[in-house]
Amino acid sequence: MLWRCSWVKQRRKILNALSFSSIDGQFSPKARETGEFSRRVALKPLTHDDVYSRLRESPSDLKTLSFFFWCAKQNNYFHDDRAFDHMVGVVEKLARRYKSVDRVVEELRLSGCAIKPRVLLLLLEIFWRGHLYDKAIEVYKGMSSFGYVPNTRAMNMMMDVLFKYDLVDRALEVFEGIRVRNFFSFDIALSHLCSRRDSVKVKIVLKMMIREGFYPNSERFGQILGVFCRTGCVAQGFQVVALMVCSGVSVSVNVWSMLVSGFFRSGEPQKAVDLFNKMIQIGCSPNLVTYTSLLKGFMDLGMVDEAFSVLSRVQSKGLAPDIVLCNVMIHTFTRLGRFQEARNVFTSLKKRKLVADRYTFASVVSSVCLSREFDLLPSFADGIGTELDLVTGNSLINCFSKSGHGSYALKVFCNMSNKDLALDCYTYTGFLTALCLGGAPARDAVGIYEKIIRKKIRLDAHFHTAMIDGLVEVGEYNTALRLFNRCILEKYPLDVVSYTVAIKGLVRAKRIDEACSVLSKMREAGVMPNRRTYRTIISGLCEEKEKDKVKKILWECIEEGVELDPNTKFKVLCLLSRYHRDVSEFRSVFEKWTYNFDVSGSCDELSVSSG
DNA sequence: ATAGGGTTAG
Q1: Which residues cross the membrane (predicted)?
Q2: Staple partner for A480: which of A221, A471, A542, A560, CB 3.0–4.6 Å?
Q3: Higher confidence at residue A48 or residue A598?
């Protein structure tokens, strides 16, 4: 833990170095009362080396512990890390022998050691340092049953333990219960809340901390800034930078880079660019990380030209791309459908003396999958046996199942399950897709789907949609729609794709009226239909020659400003052109359509390349 | 405990 390395430790070192302990040890009457230890030690100055060798030589664990407590009681003597670390093994043995902490304390008492608050506090600290958190909790509980009110230090430790056990609410209860919070109270809370990326609680605790007159150290400041920038609270990040300046922490390139990516993440590219210019203005030169943030930021917002200008800037600066930048480039080219260029970056890694990592692998797998160059897959099969992380595994499962290599996909899934990874909805979605495409009986797939739901992990719309779509694709319309309706009832997350898939099922089942009612239901639920939704329902209606319904939905589509694909437009034209009155009603719309046909017939291609 | 990066459905 970092917080031990601060000035408290320094102070102890100084005090110990000054050897006040020797004077106290010799003349304090209390020391004489403690018997054996005092007679042996008190005459000499109490040094860390001395204490350590005595701790090691001590014949019984109980005696060792009593001696440890006795030393700690001496004025201005503070145990060093070595002594504490040694005691971890000792108390571990005692706890094992006596089963419970209460019994250890009782045995201590029987052996003549007075049980004072300080004793329990030290015991707590030993367990805490030794990561024996269950025992630490026992000591803490024991304190109150002895009638001691835990002090700030004890409560700090307990809060830390509760955070480590993921008991955030209880940890914060302890935090709030600390009457006089010190720097460490805040620092521990902030460090845990930062690693949990809980920007809301970080905000609250940081405010309290400053109100009570403390400032985070530079490392914690950086962490806090990182959390705000990553969670879309860049405005707060900005305020944190102001605080850093006030408390004398230097604003490094890292800080600027974080803010740049933070502004992009919050969808404010102009502010990111302004900041970038500002940093140059004040003489802080951007590095590869800053450029990578810019590149990624522009790409995420579809500002392709700007993104490429960043690349040429990197080139003109003579900066050699590192593996992260190369990974971003592979990803960028893939998203633009420029698969060959993505491949070129990948093959250039060797020349650049860079080593591909799991990010590279995951991006390349997805690139191969999107480019449908499945013949490259066998080379990935080697990866199945190797160390897979969650994302790479997910990427592989997805790629294998889409390319009809269901058995490989299942192999990866099994591999991941055996590895004690926290499988997420990507994994389960890929798994279900592999099952459905691999021809598993619908009933089995649904059974597994329901089992996964019962796991109570966070599932998203993709997951449910994959199952429903899988059923639609094998013609199990009734089951598919039953699951879809249950999703609505249970308020499972559903998105445009989910509704579109359900409409597809209804269209295929020739239940056109129900398809139309799902369309209006989705609007009521606040989910707006997109081009694919309209394409699905309008093609269905055209096939059924439902002229009037086509007209109604076409108007809605036009009103919502959704542009149909050429294929669907053609179907509509075919159906309606037979009726003069309808043609005249839509004349202006149709004219625009035919104009667009002439200008660009490659509408679909564009939509593919933009993801 | 990390300044920047990777995976999904029609």
Answers
A1: none
A2: A471
A3: A48
DSSP at A5: G
On average, the pLDDT of chain A sits at 86
- Least confident piece of the model among A77-86, A210-219, A287-296, A363-372: A363-372
- Greatest C-alpha distance within chain A: 115
A178 domain residue, yes or no: no
Per the structure, the residue whose CA is closest to nucleotide B1 at C1' is: A195
Q: Model pTM?
A: 0.75
The pair of three-digit structure tokens given for residue A274, joined into one six-digit string? 């302004």
Q: How confident is the model at residue A37 (pLDDT cuts 50, 70, 90)?
A: low
Q: What is d(CA A25, CA A71) in angstroms, rounded to the nearest whole number?
A: 9
Burial zone of A190 (CB within 10 Å; 0-12 exposed, 13-18 middle, 19+ buried) = buried
Distance A427 CA to B7 C1' (A): 9
Å from A277 (CA) to B1 (C1')? 31
C-alpha pair distances (Å), A13 with each of A3, A7, A52, A434: 15, 10, 16, 62
Asked whether residue A71 is assigned to any structural domain, the reply reads: yes
- Number of compact structural domains in chain A: 1
Chain B: bases < 7 Å from a protein Cβ? 1-10
* A125: containing domain: 1-150
pLDDT at A469: 94
What is the predicted pLDDT for the residue at A381?
65
Does the residue A502 lie in any domain? no
Q: How far is the CA of A188 from the C1' of B9 (A)?
A: 41
Is it the case that residue A31 has pLDDT exceeding 70?
no
Assess if residue A524 is contained within a domain: no
